[in-house]
């Protein structure tokens, strides 16, 4: 939220407090059942869509997005609002494993690696991601999507008082 407004929630009531002005309370129970469902579905669509906001930076945006949506949904079903390993992290780990296999003359497609990563417990995924060669590949994959064109020394360091 912008600085001119803060929000809070208590039960089914959402409060917007406008700096130097008033508060507005919105109780979901004041809405019809149809409107509540519309609002719920809008929020669900937004939550799932947010999970793959960075898919365009991936080597396979569609697989990334599909994995991210699946992971967030599974987390919601399990009662977790923000799952520890998002789809993007799982996809990047799978891509790193695929590249590692290829560098060692083995064949492991990203899809097959993703199937493997999905089967691992979160602790196993975290441990695999910390193996130095895999961690380096994860860093490289993450950096591939960053557009650094147009960055100048002034953009990075500022005027430096000169």
Give an overview in words.
- The protein is mainly alpha-helical and 162 residues long.
- It contains seven helices and three strands.
- A three-stranded antiparallel sheet has the order 1-2-3, with no helix packed on it.
- α3 crosses α6 (132-144).
- It is extended and about 65 Å long.
- Poorly predicted runs of 5 or more residues: none
Structural class: mainly alpha
What percentage of residues falls in helices of 4 or more residues?
40-55%
Task: Compute the average pLDDT.
Answer: 83
Number of helices: 7
Distance between the termini: 37 Å
Radius of gyration: 21 Å
Major sheet: arrangement of strands: 1-2-3
**Major sheet summary line:** 3 strands, antiparallel
> In what range is the share of β-strand residues?
5-15%
- List the helices and strands in order: EEEHHHHHHH
Q: How many β strands by DSSP?
A: 3
Question: What is the global morphology?
Answer: extended
Short summary of the structure?
This protein is mainly α. Helices cover 55% and strands 10% of the residues.
Describe the protein's topology.
Elements: E1 5-10, E2 13-18, E3 23-27, H1 33-50, H2 61-77, H3 87-103, H4 110-119, H5 122-130, H6 132-144, H7 153-157
Antiparallel strand pairs: 1-2, 2-3
Helix pairs in contact: 2-3, 3-4, 3-6
List keywords for this structure.
about 160 residues; 7 helices; about 55% helix; about 10% strand
